[in-house]
User: Which sequence fits this backbone?
C-alpha cells in the first residue's frame, strides 16, 4: 500500500478514537460528537504539531495562543445546548476550530479575535471548509458585539478575570453563556443560564486552563 492511500485510514481511525474518548469522558450529545467528527482538526493545527492533531490535548498555535483540547471544545459546546436556529457569539477565534464546530450546530456564529493574523488564518480555513455561516471581527472581545446583540448563546474561549457583565448584557433573557472565569492559571468553567427575567443560574462545570482574555487588540509587526 502506498503512503498516500494509507493516510486517510489512519486519520479516520485516530478521529474515531478521539470521539470515543470524548464520549467516555461525558461528551455524549450526538450532534456535538458528529460536529467534532466532521471537523478536520488537522487543518487547524500548525505544521509542527500536525501529527498530534488527534490527541486530546491543547496545542500551541501562532501568536503564543493555543487551540483548545478537543474534550474541552466538546464539553463547552454541549454546555451551550445549541439549537439549529441559534445566533452565537464566540470570543477568541484562535485557530477557528471551536468556531467551525459551533458553525455546524447553529445558524450564525459571530466570532471576535484580537490578533489580526489569527483571524485571517481562521477565515482562510472557513473558506477551505466552505463554512459560510461564520462572521469574523478583529476587535476586543471584552466589548462583545453590541451591534449584533442580543445573542442566543455566548461562548468565551479565553479566561475572563471575573463575571463578564458586558457579555451577559448582550445575551437574550433565556440565553446561555459559557466561559472560563478566574485570574490564575486554573479557572472555573462556568455556565450562566438566563432565567428570562434578567437573572442567571450559574453552574461550575469543571476546572480548566485557558490563556487569559486580554484587553484591547494585539499590536503586531
Ligand atoms: N477556541 C480557540 C482557542 C483560542 S485561545 C481554538 O479552538 O483555537 C483564546 C483566543 O482568545 C486567542 O486567540 C486570543 O488571542 C483570544 N483573545 C484573548 N483575549 C481576547 C479579547 N479581548 N478579544 C478577542 N480575542 C481575545
Assistant:
Amino acid at each position: 500500500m502506498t503512503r498516500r492511500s494509507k493516510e486517510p485510514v489512519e486519520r479516520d481511525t485516530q478521529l474515531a478514537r478521539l470521539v470515543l474518548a470524548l464520549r467516555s469522558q461525558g461528551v455524549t450529545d450526538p450532534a456535538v460528537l458528529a460536529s467534532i467528527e466532521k471537523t478536520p482538526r488537522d487543518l487547524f493545527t500548525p505544521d509542527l504539531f500536525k501529527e498530534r492533531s488527534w490527541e486530546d490535548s491543547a496545542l500551541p498555535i501562532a501568536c503564543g495562543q493555543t487551540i483548545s483540547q478537543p474534550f474541552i471544545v466538546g464539553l463547552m459546546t454541549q454546555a451551550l445546548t445549541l439549537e439549529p436556529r441559534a445566533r452565537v457569539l464566540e470570543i477568541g477565534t484562535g485557530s477557528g476550530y471551536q468556531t467551525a464546530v459551533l458553525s455546524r450546530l447553529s445558524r450564525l456564529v459571530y466570532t471576535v479575535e484580537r490578533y489580526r493574523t489569527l483571524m485571517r488564518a481562521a477565515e482562510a480555513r472557513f473558506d477551505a471548509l466552505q463554512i459560510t455561516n461564520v462572521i469574523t471581527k478583529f476587535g476586543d472581545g471584552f466589548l462583545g458585539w453590541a451591534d449584533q446583540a442580543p445573542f442566543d448563546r455566548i461562548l468565551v474561549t479565553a479566561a475572563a478575570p471575573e463575571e463578564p457583565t458586558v457579555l451577559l448584557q448582550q445575551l437574550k433573557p433565556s440565553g446561555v453563556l459559557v466561559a472560563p472565569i478566574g485570574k490564575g492559571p486554573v479557572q472555573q468553567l462556568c455556565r450562566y443560564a438566563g432565567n428570562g427575567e434578567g437573572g442567571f443560574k450559574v453552574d461550575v462545570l469543571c476546572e480548566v486552563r485557558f490563556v487569559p482574555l486580554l484587553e484591547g487588540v494585539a499590536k503586531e509587526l
Observations:
- The beta strands are 59-60, 66-67, 87-91, 108-113, 134-138, 151-156, 171-181, 187-194, 200-208.
- The chain has a mean pLDDT of 95.
